Amino acid sequence: MAAQTDQRDITQATAQGHEGKYLTFVLGDEEYGVEILKVREIIGLMEITIVPQTPEFIKGVINLRGKVIPVIDLRLKFGMEEAEPTEETCVIVVDIVGTLMGILVDTVSEVLDISASEIEPPPAFDSNIGTEFILGMGKIKGRVKILLAISRVLSQEELTRVIQSGGPGKG
Fold this sequence. Notes:
The protein is an alpha+beta fold. Helix content is 18%, strand content 42%. The protein has helices at residues 2-18, 74-77, 156-165, and strands at 20-27, 30-35, 39-44, 58-64, 67-73, 90-96, 99-105, 107-114, 119-120, 134-140, 143-148. The chain has a 6-stranded mixed β-sheet with strand order 8-1-2-11-10-9, with helices on one face. Strands 3-6-7-5-4 form a 5-stranded mixed β-sheet. A hairpin with a 2-residue loop joins strand 10 and strand 11 (143-148). It is globular. It starts with a helix and ends in a 6-residue tail after the last helix.
């Protein structure tokens, strides 16, 4: 009984640590959220320069007001099929550990203020399934939104690769 209470306290503390404002967006049929404090701006899809010898989910780099920024296709990173861009396709520029990076999404939805009571911990899957990039599951208006720890979506090795692809003289 005490272990169950301890687990509930940990879960509640975790949820409280993740409450706040989230920018929500759509990939396929799923809705996701990223902490608004990590978002720098949202831009329409622009020309992406392909960088050779990078993983498929790294679409390339963009030149945003003189800054070269790597762009990741979250659909590909999450194992979804690539989608044809639409008028709603956009790039969310996020700050990941001091590095600006673009994430390609199908469409941006809205900014939501999510309270701790609306956040559940990530589901427990088989240990072979990586869920370390999920902060929690937001339950809002009868729908579930996957709240991302955007700095953990890429492994450290992938992050280093992405940063190098967007570095000076690489684009």
